[in-house]
Design goal:
This protein is of the alpha+beta class and 359 residues long. The protein is built from six helices and 20 strands. Strands 1, 2, 10, 11, 12, 13, 19 and 20 form an eight-stranded mixed sheet that branches. A seven-stranded mixed sheet has the order 8-7-15-16-17-14-18, covered by helices on one side. Strands 3-9-6 form a three-stranded antiparallel sheet. The longest helix is centred in the N-terminal third of the chain and has 18 residues.
Length: 359
């Protein structure tokens, strides 16, 4: 059964038993495991440290998206939960993971301006969208926003790799992280229970494998639509004073400090690997350069890093969260795609509550 939460409205392997085994340590697996631990559960996290989409993603929290400029489903509940959870984790791990940043979206056409005007007139969008920003007024006129644009308010960016590294180090220090590939052949499952390597997983096994779920014998049949995405870290001299906002035109550009930006992204549904593509880096770099045509000295972006990953997207609007239809102790927590930073915190809280209640 798949739950919709927003209908309108190696040393560790020797342990004899665990309450829950969480497979995968991307953002979904990390937040769910932390929520289960918060509720007093003994959790084993299994992750081989291989490529994960979460470590490639820009980490943008953008509450109003798409060509139709619409609020993310459930965002009035999702957004405060996300900011609260990230703040709590920052306090726990003594670091800042999330920071609010305005999200500046370039107008691509007059039609888009009309769509935005309709949204802005809707009381449901009050406080979410700024007034129009005239062309050439942002970043000292250095931006190529020939039609102007607008800000999406309440947006921000999560440093996902930093958060994942802190959680991983904590679990490793406590001996509750198994750094190897999870082998489904080690699972013994019945209608009422699950055992792994001879030990009982009393609460169950939760799969948070990202796109690797396509190889999972219990959940591969679901309608997965994974997509490869790539980001380049770029340095562009002269942009040091323009890092007060995320920029969205043909690409998304996230300020990293100094003159560095994280720029992406593409959606490739044919080549599902984590290998960076030189042609994509070139395209992203050129598209980013177009954003700043007025910089003096003919500065051109320098690519300093290039990463790729495969997002676990699904067919349909909502992620896949719930129990296997036949085996009640096998669970799925996956499919959050590009909205994971926004969705996962509240989903993880509510799913952890349900998992604990149903034990």
């Amino acid at each position: 059964m798949i739950f919709d939460f927003f209908k309108k409205s190696r040393a560790a392997a020797a342990e004899p038993a665990h309450d829950f085994i969480v497979v995968g340590q991307g953002l979904a697996g990390t937040l769910l495991a932390l929520e289960l631990e918060k509720r007093g559960q003994r959790v084993l996290v299994v992750d081989d440290g291989g490529p994960a989409a979460s470590r490639v993603a820009a980490g943008v929290l953008n509450p109003v998206t798409g060509m139709r400029i619409v609020k993310t489903l459930g965002v009035d509940d999702l957004l405060p939960a996300a900011k609260r959870v990230y703040a709590e984790l920052g306090a726990r791990f003594c670091g800042t993971f999330f920071r609010e940043l305005p999200f500046y979206r370039f107008y691509s056409s007059e039609h888009e301006r009309e769509v935005k005007a309709k949204r802005a007139a809707d009381p449901e969008y009050a406080g979410w969208l700024s007034e129009d920003v005239p062309a050439g007024t942002l970043c000292g006129g250095a931006l190529a926003d020939r039609l102007g644009g607008f800000f999406v308010n309440r947006a921000g960016r999560l440093d996902i790799p930093k958060l994942l590294d802190r959680a991983r180090a904590d679990w490793r220090s406590r001996g509750v992280l198994l750094e190897e590939k999870f082998d489904c052949a080690d699972v013994e499952v019945s209608r009422s229970g699950a055992r792994w390597r001879g030990g009982e997983a009393r609460g169950g096994i939760v799969f948070c494998e990202g796109f690797r779920v396509r190889e999972n014998p219990w959940f591969s049949h679901l309608k997965w639509q994974p997509a490869k995405g790539e980001f380049v870290e770029i340095e562009l001299a002269g942009t040091e004073d323009f890092q007060a906002q995320i920029l969205k035109s043909n690409v998304v550009a996230v300020p990293l400090g100094g003159a560095r930006w994280l720029v992406g992204t593409n959606y490739d549904r044919e080549t599902l690997d984590a290998e960076p593509t030189p042609a994509v880096a070139e395209r992203l770099s050129r598209a980013f350069a177009v954003l700043f045509p007025q910089l003096p000295g003919g500065a051109f972006p320098r690519v300093v890093a290039h990463r790729a990953g495969v997002r676990p997207a699904v067919q349909g609007a909502l992620p896949k969260v719930g129990a296997h239809e036949k085996f009640s102790k096998l669970f799925l927590f996956n499919g959050f795609g590009s909205k994971g930073v926004t969705w996962i915190p509240l989903y993880a809280e509510r799913f952890a509550e349900k998992l604990c209640a149903d034990r």
